[in-house]
Amino acid sequence: MHPILLAFIAGVLGGGVFTLLHLPLSWLLGSMVSVFLLNKWTKLEFAWPSYLRDLGLIIVGYAIGQSFSQKTMIEIFTQLPSMLTTTVTLIVFSMFLAYITSTMTGIGLTSTITGSIPGGLSQMVTLGEEMKNIDLTVVTILQVIRLLSVIFVVPFLVFSPLLAGDKTDSGTAAHSFEMPDLQWGFVLFFAIAVASGVLAKKIHLPTPTLLGPILVIGGFMIAELPVPQMPGLFIILAQLSLGIYFSFMMNFSSSGAMGKFILWSLFTSLCLLLCCAGLSVLLSRWHGISFLTAFISLAPGGMAEMALVGQAVHADLSIITGYHLFRILFILFIIPATLKGLFKLSFFQKDRHG
């Protein structure tokens, strides 16, 4: 059997089991767990090309774009000072956690800082490649562990009695298996979303296949054009695609030294989530938004994954996207020059072990 088809079947089985168990984001988490376990414990060959991941991101981007309106854009602009404050706070706290990780494991501070800043896996690994004396393995592992811990922990937190998440939809209930009645209007708008993802990639936007459709479909919504609804089946397929893709990130060394490093990475990821929870309390009071919307907006995961969580609990997707987009752009444009200048200081020069 073809490795891609095998991965898809394994993902559907895992997603189906998680759905039957009524677990949150069942198709994303279930497919991720099942493909990872089968990949690790069997001799079956799995593959998942990046274009299928991109297609999943385009679907999510379309769904996020539909949450925009003139009213939400005004709301986002009024929250720009809060976006700046929370982003800087999370980055400074991440650097503090990186210092603890470096102290406890003996790994170079420059590598742990680059790996700890919640700027997205691809962006931070690319940044690490541009700098001297950065251990890319450390950067990748830190980014992957934080992303995976957020993907697993946040849905369970959000749906727990603690946060009183909306259990009527665990990311699955609202999405039926009925084949969507695809109207030509939807086909046209979806084709536009795909084209916008391709164009965004060519002009090198961050997370282009997600951001392109958000900007274009969101633009149509702000202009009050009738954009057809994204079928629930497509959302399930997007979750499956992203879950299978993330499963291939979960390959960690089992050596003793690396084991200690991974444990500290998990600990610091959870500390960062606690910091996000504290900031979310303040944010919900400042702007009168729900705690769930504030928490998902600040959670240090990817924009697509957090949007799926937000959609499942009926949080405000436009606010969530606004905060994540602001953080991505801030880290993309401000952090590289800041880190390069910071790492030239004598404190970092003497600390460089890797």
Could you explain how this protein is built, in words?
By secondary structure, the protein is mainly α. The chain has one domain (3-349): Up-down Bundle (Na+/H+ antiporter like fold). The chain has 17 helices and no strands. It is globular.
Layout: helices, strands, pairs:
Blueprint: H1 3-20, H2 26-41, H3 50-65, H4 70-78, H5 80-105, H6 109-116, H7 121-130, H8 136-159, H9 184-202, H10 208-222, H11 232-247, H12 256-287, H13 291-298, H14 303-312, H15 317-333, H16 335-342, H17 346-349
Helix pairs in contact: 1-2, 1-11, 2-11, 3-9, 3-10, 3-11, 4-15, 5-6, 5-12, 5-15, 6-8, 7-8, 8-12, 9-10, 12-13, 13-14, 13-15, 14-15
On the 0 to 100 scale, the average pLDDT is 83
Approximately what portion of the residues adopt beta-strand conformation? under 5%
Largest sheet: none
CATH class placement: Mainly Alpha
Summarize the structure.
This protein has 354 residues and is mainly α. The protein has helices at residues 3-20, 26-41, 50-65, 70-78, 80-105, 109-116, 121-130, 136-159, 184-202, 208-222, 232-247, 256-287, 291-298, 303-312, 317-333, 335-342, 346-349. The radius of gyration is 20 Å and the shape is globular.
